[in-house]
Specification:
Length: 258
């Protein structure tokens, strides 16, 4: 079974390379850091003070996540999950996939694993972009020093794990929906609607019950120092497990798959 899953994952990964989801991950990972870098270069008079200020890396981290966490990251997760999951619908290859010598369990979890690895890829690229936004101004301008503060790797890992966990319920529900509907607009529309509901519900005292609000709640909690009323990471993990199990049983018990 392990070799079968590995082969299934490799097959899904190769198919993903020919999709728009690959470009979405790369462009999305560097988009905000490049904008921040451009904004810093446009105002070079402030670069010396910014690069020598205390906690420069933490400030860059929060500055980049301010734009990413509230809308762009959840929206990117919705798009990428739907694009990867619906490759067979668009290419009309579900019958070929199910005719291959691999079980439904391998098909379901190999696709899900590809989406999760893509998310990890995005986080790696995004953090590389933040690092470059802090270092490149010192390369471009002779009077600007490199940040003297050591790069806070543990701080970045903790923050990224936080946001990655917040994305899990979105992946789980979008995967479930995208596996069930041939029309790409149905899971996409549902995801956008739930994201809007989540952003509206951020100010609601029970907003932690809306899984699409977790990225925004996490950022607001970090910015204000007031964490959400409940442990959203436990809620996120619970929702992800629930949506994944539900999606799996719907998929394997569905008479006509694809």
């Amino acid at each position: 079974m392990q070799l079968t899953f590995v082969h299934g994952f490799q097959s899904e990964w190769l198919k993903k390379k020919r999709s728009a989801a690959s470009w979405l991950v790369i462009i999305g990972g560097f988009f905000i850091p490049l904008l921040i870098l451009a904004a810093r270069i446009i105002e070079p008079d402030n670069l010396y003070a910014e690069n020598t200020s205390p906690h420069v890396w933490e400030k860059l981290f929060h500055q980049c996540w301010q734009f990413m966490a509230l809308f762009l990251l959840p929206m990117g997760v919705i798009l990428a999950t739907s694009l990867v999951t619906q490759l067979e619908f668009r290419n009309n290859t579900w019958k070929q996939l199910h005719a291959a010598p691999q079980g439904y369990t391998v098909v379901f979890f190999s696709k899900l694993a590809v989406i999760l690895v893509m998310m990890l890829q995005f986080f790696v690229l995004f953090n590389i972009g933040i690092y470059l936004a802090g270092m490149l101004p010192a390369v471009f301008f002779a009077g600007v020093p490199f940040p003297p503060e050591p790069f806070p790797l543990a701080y970045y890992l903790e923050g990224n794990l936080d946001y990655f966990t917040c994305c899990l319920p979105i992946i789980g529900l979008q995967y479930l929906l995208s596996m069930q509907f041939r029309n790409f607009l149905i899971p996409l529309g549902a995801g956008i609607g739930l994201l809007v509901a989540g952003l509206i519900g951020v100010s609601w005292k029970y907003g932690y019950t809306i899984p699409y609000s977790y990225c925004a709640l996490s950022f607001i909690g970090k910015s204000t120092g007031n964490p959400p009323a409940a442990n959203i990471h436990l809620f996120a993990a619970g929702y992800f497990v629930l949506f994944t199990i539900a999606g799996y049983f719907i998929y394997i018990t569905k008479k006509e798959k694809g």
